Amino acid sequence: MAVEFIGIDPDTDRDHCPTAWADTEAQEVLLQGWKLDAETQAACEATSPANGSVPEGEAIVRIPARMIPLIREACDALERAQLR
Fold first, then answer.
1. How far apart are CA 6 and CA 81, in angstroms?
2. Domain boundaries, the chain
3. What is the reported pLDDT for 84?
4. Which of 17, 36, 48, 58 could bridge 12 with an S-S bond, Cβ 3.0-4.6 Å?
5. 36 pLDDT exceeds 90?
């Protein structure tokens, strides 16, 4: 596993904040975010094409829009790894 730290939400404290990594070996973006409240979870599941539920082993997390640059950077890291 080749996990590259990309960054954390610049507007939160350093202990509890959304974070982005790139697993360049698996070619996956890894995100840490806030757990959803029951109402938001239900709203997401109600619009899910996967029969209205999140499969075991998967989760929906909330990521603030201000992290879009970090998510883009994680995607760029994956693309760079493919070129090596």
1. 14
2. 3-83
3. 77
4. 17
5. yes
